[in-house]
Amino acid sequence: MSEPGLYALLTGQTAPAPPSVPAPATVPQARRDATPPRAGVAALRCRKRVCTVRVRASDNRGVVRSVNARTTKRMKVCVTRRSGRRSCRTARRTRTLRLAKVAGGYRGRFRLSPGSYRFSVSVADASGNRSRTVTRAFRVRR
After folding, report:
1. Alpha-carbon distances of 105 from 67, 71, 76, rounded to whole Å
2. CATH 2.60.40 assigned to 35-137
């Protein structure tokens, strides 16, 4: 008698409730730290086309897994066609930088051509949390 309606019809009673199944035991997982790390530009100096940058990176546990640093230059690219018509567009040239770990943060040194740039840096910790991207504009002079 698998149908509850047939059971009620024959016996005049309602069908008994099915036996309850115990809930599976949950395994406690390692708590993921939800606090994101922080990144900041401590110093950015350019002299004679060589730029030096110092980045502060901190996490509440002191574990910083990776640092992403890059420079971006906006350029105007113009092309003159055979017909004499000239068309221009803006382009971005992005360069990823390598920073070395030093006491108190990270340090890098790189060479850039004269112009206006944006330096951006973000940090990730061991839990996979990412910091906000910190951006700073600077200019390289001749």
Report:
1. 10, 19, 35
2. yes
